[in-house]
Amino acid sequence: MTEKRSRLFVYLHLLLPVSIALVSETSYASSEDTIKFRNIDSAVVTVTKSVTNRRLVPNTITVVPSVRLEATANSALLPVVSREVPGLFVTQKGVTGFGVSEGSAGIVNIRGVGQGNKVLLMLDGQPQWAGIFGHALPDLYVASDADRVEVLRGPGSLIYGSNAAGGIINVITHSQDSPGSDTRVRLMYGSYNTQKYLVSNGWSNGKFSSFVSVNHDRTDGHRENSAFRITNGFAKAAWKFSNKFRLVADLSLAKTKGQNPGRTDKPIYDNTIDILRGSASVALENSTGKLSGMIKAYYGFGDHLINDGYFAGGTPRNTLFSSFDHNMGVMLYESFSPFKGNRITVGADWKNWGGKASNVPVPESSAVAVQIVDKSVSELAAYAIVQQELFSILTLNGGLRYENNSVFGGELIPQAGATLRPLMGSTVKFILSKGFRSPNIREMYMFPPQNPGLKPERILNRELSFIQSIAEGRFSAELALFLITGDNLIQVAMVDGRPVNTNTGEFTNKGFEIEAKAGVLANLVLSSNYSYLKTDKPMLAAPEHMFNLNAVYAPGTFSFSAGIQYTGGLYVSLQPNPVAEENYMLVNASASWNHKFGAIATTLFIKGDNLAGENYTINYGFPMPGRLFSAGININF
Predict the structure, then answer these.
(1) Exposed / middle / buried, residue 242 (Cβ in 10 Å: 0-12, 13-18, 19+)
(2) pLDDT digits (tens, 9 = 90+) for 11-22
(3) Quick one: which of 92, 52, 54 has its CA closest to 429?
């Protein structure tokens, strides 16, 4: 047993008797809110698009509510979600910010599947990815905007098509349901001159409601030339003009500036990004009891200006990478119940993505602009899902999607599953599902080793899961066993002496995931999750072991927190020299004080991350920071 793994058990014995936190960062919610359980029977929308009890769908899905997201006092959403969801791993490289281009982080893997945009990130069901690059946009997702996050662990291609082969992260944004106005302000300062600011307001009056937020994060970074700045703005408005129909529109914008210092063994200079990204959508929703549905149109864009920089001994570049990409579409679905226990959902999607990219001269340069790509791709799809409940204990679920891609032609995506509820509080699930991913524009047309002849990747998932809760949900546990195989995967191979993207890869991933929660006392809750992943070949960003142990103690106006997070068998480099594997454990703690001054609720908080000063790396050549401390104030009125 390695030294780091043996230390895991030491920390466990030290922590268990005095566990005083549910999340590994401070809470600025009230003590009563902080202690709340995640309802094991949560209603979800990601799997069938209509509101469905989580026990009735065969998929394994985790719901992370806002109280858990906000308890972190963190603006970035994905690192928080990764601690709450077994089997989900997010790459990181610094204090805050993921970045893009060379040296970027933010790769999301579920059960070892995710690289090459195989996990679909969505905002209220709207697909989010950069049109010509294909990758997700991790810096755009803000914890304060989310009412909850639904994570589908396994293929979601039946409903959402390409890019959902490994799973789905669907961010459900806030809606102001209660009449009146709610305003929140947060100020936070921490190590390396890290500053985080938030202002948000929810308002509702009669049939109209709105939610608006602005977040600004900045840090000098823990390494030279690693500064990062981002400002996120989000606005959402809803008008319920009848008991059956509601109109919803939203707009999000994010401005990012950052610098990449390069690997410690190969520093890079002037590698900067200047990015503006945005998205907007408008949706008409209907709900008439047995009938519910929506038609939604959306548009997303990105304007990138990147200096690829130069290495020691080189010279500054005379051109910059410039691109403008888009991702737009229309989604339509309707869900109805023709008879008792039955639910049918039918839908159709049209999507189009693409853009332009060029190398443009820097000011006062004699270089000539060179176009790299100008492409777009369209998809048109239709699908149907049937769910039937039998004898109040058995639910059958199946569906079929047909998707036609303007480049690759047609693809059928079937799915079948069942849930059995033999005893009170017990659920058994089985699912057989297919995932697929169309090659993105970058893989086909941009930069060596591009290959316009690529074909879609395919994944098959078999899964058996169990859910058990007792004492009205105060004690709950879940176990999921899975076997995933993939073929036709895109890998770089040498063809005629040069690297080319080819459909040659195969893999087999198998393992299990466990979640458990227990209400020990009225104001003390323990929770943990563990995932084991066995791959038939080494994979980047796919840890063999992930373990989280957390608890919360909220006796009154004070709340305290502590937790550990262990990651083992993580490959950070697969190159022959070196093949690098990491095992690390993080210890975090925090405290907060809540007080109410009339109608103003105030929370002061302080937190520490990586208190043991662990030295570790997630992206090869980018060591993570050591101990981090921060403090702040949150005001609600």
Answers:
(1) exposed
(2) 334 333 333 233
(3) 54
Work out the pLDDT band at 7, boundaries 50, 70, 90: very low
Token output for 529: 């999750």
Say how many C-beta atoms besides its own lie within 10 A of residue 464's C-beta: 16
Residue pLDDT, tens place only, 334-345: 999 999 889 999
Question: Any residues with CB less than 8 A from the CB of 326 and at least 6 apart, and which?
Answer: 131, 299, 300, 301, 302, 352, 353, 354, 355, 376
Domains and CATH numbers, the chain: 3-636 (2.40.170.20)
606's CB contacts (< 8 A; 6+ apart) are 26, 590, 591, 592, 629, 630, 631
For the chain, the average pLDDT equals: 89
* Per-residue H/E/C for 462-479: EEEEEEEEECCCCEEEEE
The pLDDT of residue 496 is: 86
Rounded CA-CA distance 534/372 in Å is 39
* CB < 8 Å & 24+ apart, contacts of 332-337: 332/293, 332/294, 332/295, 332/296, 333/49, 333/293, 333/294, 334/291, 334/292, 334/293, 335/48, 335/49, 335/50, 335/291, 335/292, 335/293, 336/290, 336/291, 336/292, 337/290
Q: Buried b vs exposed e over 610-635: b needs ≥16 C-beta within 10 Å?
A: bbeeeebbbbbbbbbbeebebbbebe
DSSP letter string over 392-461?
Answer: TTEEEEEEEEEEEETTTEEEEEEEEEEEE--STTEEEEEEEEEEEEPPPHHHHHSSTT--TT---EEEEE
Q: Hey, is 114 helix, strand or coil? A: coil
Nearest to 629 by CA among 193, 205, 241, 136: 193
Q: Which of 257-266, 441-450, 470-479, 595-604 has the lowest mean pLDDT?
A: 470-479
Count the neighbouring beta carbons within 10 Å of the beta carbon of residue 566.
21
The answer to pTM > 0.90 is: yes
The three-point CA angle 610-587-217 to 5° equals: 45
Sign (positive or negative) of CA dihedral 634, 193, 75, 553: negative
Query: Per-residue pLDDT tens for 105-145?
Result: 888 999 999 887 899 999 999 999 999 998 888 888 888 89
What is the DSSP secondary-structure string of 53-109? EGGGSSS-EEEEEHHHHHTTT-SBSHHHHHHHSTTEEE---SSS---SSTT----EE
The pLDDT score that the predictor gives to residue 513 is: 98
Report the share of the chain in percent with pLDDT over 90: 68
Q: Which residue has the tokens 């995506």?
A: 413
Give the Cα separation of 607 and 611 in Å (integer).
Answer: 10
DSSP character at residue 31: H
With CA atoms as reference, report the closest residue to 274 among 319, 318, 228, 221.
Answer: 228
CA nearest neighbour of 201 among 191, 210, 190, 192 = 210
